[in-house]
UniProtKB/TrEMBL annotation, chain A:
Subcellular location: Cell membrane
Name of protein: Branched-chain amino acid ABC transporter permease
Coiled-coil region list: none
Organism per entry: Pseudooceanicola nanhaiensis
Keywords from the named record: Cell membrane, Membrane, Transmembrane, Transmembrane helix
Molecular function (Gene Ontology), one example: branched-chain amino acid transmembrane transporter activity
Single GO cellular component term: plasma membrane
Domain of life, source organism: Bacteria
Residues passing through the membrane, by range: 27-44, 50-69, 76-95, 101-123, 130-148, 237-259, 271-296, 316-335
From TrEMBL, chain B:
Keyword terms: Amino-acid transport, Cell membrane, Membrane, Transmembrane, Transmembrane helix, Transport
Domain of life: Bacteria
Any one Gene Ontology BP term: amino acid transport
Gene source species: Pseudooceanicola nanhaiensis
GO cellular component, one term: plasma membrane
Main localization, broad class: membrane
Protein name, UniProt field: Branched-chain amino acid ABC transporter permease
TM helices/strands, residue ranges: 12-33, 45-65, 85-106, 118-138, 176-196, 217-241, 261-282, 294-314
Amino acid sequence: MLYREAGDFKTSYAKDNQTFPIRFDRWGYFALLAVAFLVVPFVINDYWASAVLLPFLIYSIAALGLNILTGYCGQVSLGTGGFMAVGAYSCYKLMTAFPEVSIVIHVLLAGGITAGVGLLFGLPSLRIKGFYLAVATLAAQFFLVWLFNKVGWFYNYSASGQISSAPRSVLGFEVTGPTASAAAKYLICLSFVVVMAWLARNLTRGSYGRKWMAIRDMDIAAEIIGVNPLAAKLSAFAVSSFFVGVSGALFFSVYLGAVEVGEVFGIQKSFLVLFMIIIGGLGSILGSFAGAAFIVLLPVFLKNVLVGSFGWATDLAAHLEIMTLGGLIMMFLILEPHGLAQYWRTTKEKLRLWPFPH
Amino acid sequence: MPEQLLFAMEVTLNGLMAGVLYALVALGFVLIFKASGVFNFAQGVMALFAALTLVGFMEGQIPFAHLINAIFGTDIHHFGWHVNALVAILMTMVVMVALAWCVNHFVMRHLVNQEPIILFMATIGLAYFLEGLGDLMWGSDIKNLNVGLPQGINGWIDETTFNLFGYGFFIDNLDIVATIVAVALVIVLIAFAQYTKQGRAMRAVADDHQAALSVGISLNFIWVMVWSVAGFVALVAGIMWGSKSGVQFSLSLIALKALPVLMLGGFTSIPGAIVGGLIIGVGEKLFEFAVGPLIGGATENWFAFVLALVFLVFRPQGLFGEKIIERV
């Protein structure tokens, strides 16, 4: 009834091409933004911020990045954890080297540095394809983690081998460090997410996005119709690494505050982000968010039910969680290879016809 | 002879032995890939699972004891008997066959005709599932596996090399056993693929699914068989790795090392897996020996991957892989 294009007249090309062509979606989007920016910061507490909202927002950026590379451009990467580490460590180096510069600029620069590293490791993708490439990206994962572990310069020769973020403020509010409030941390992450999502959405539906998708669907055919595989693949690697780098920088500076590289950015993280985009939906912006939300909420949910309600041991819950995760991945690939995003698409089709389906 | 050279020789020998162990895991990958086009990421976790199950049977652990205790409030953990290693190995093999059937019946059968990369991701899911299942069944503590294989320094080699060079080489008996087992395994596998009816059927399926179907080969049977054989290889690898460094989670990470081995040797070649394993084993040990101390050590974590990456840039199909032909 409410959910349809009919009666929503577009009078310009810009309006015809807008992200949300349906009025209901548009309002929903603005309402969501309003709630996220104006209501949530006042009701947020430390538990919700650290257990659910912050990881969700930060993982969303990482998932967006990997989705650009894997979902849109078809290059499977298992190096996400390593690239997040690049973001975190470059952010740390920038923070300690230029303490007077705003953290926002540091995070963006960290993303830029990660993009450069991503380009470097993306070069073999011109020769190597499919799972050969997936395994090749493992080289990035293991090499980068080893590098940050062994070379003292990266963690300023601190005795513990950890990096930790000093207090920094944005617009007068402290966003990093131990004394920063949950609301401030949440808002800074949310702002990044909104901007990054806007960027991802518009990149993927522009000419670059179409090039990536052409490469994904069949690279030789794309080459024949005039898509430059070098430019398309490397730009996908660069953009994707930028996103992943930003998320790594936020993960370190805002969310965790102190990081030990092998523990936080190990190969498990690469798989986790990959699972997010599989469950959420490959090649979908909404899917990246849905997948991130799902993967963040699943352990919280299982822990609350199993440990909280049944009183089981935590390691038991952890084993069940891994099993559930693996089982869900297989289930999703069998039942709905396009992920949660596909459910939303079918729901949308149904809503258009509701309440009079034919 | 200068001392450095002797050290390097010893390192090379040890590298060869380690390479054999990598090749053992890589073999399992190649088998499944050849017969069903599935790149089985879970091979390493299968080795871990097999080793866990083996230890569980030998020690007489009750499966899922932890879970049962949590649900029913009981306090059980062991049956109180010990099973002979050989019997336990046979029992574990039955479990691996059952697992193969389950994997085929519940997962792979439904993914026929999907893109290879989707199948690959499904096996990552399988890896997680098995990892959780193994921990849930048998507990996640580090276990010792002792099936009666000889361990410790080989005295004969130590003595002989000492007499020859004035410096005794340290070679673990277990590594020698592993080498012999690996060679035997390869011979058995090749004989199986070449001379038995099922082996020929397996190769037919690998060549062309539809043609194999049309001459009356049951795809389901072949796939269950292939996964069982891979389970068997995983069991052997699990026994070797488990005896060497204990049965623990890192076992499945070591198995990740088999991936560069495969890339180097080519996904479709059994000799490739062996040669690739040896190259990686020797390469990473020598690199750690020669360059490691200069740049902080622990280079074994990544050297194999970087080597494979660089190698693939020049030869994308690996050493012995079939040439990749792409058509629009």
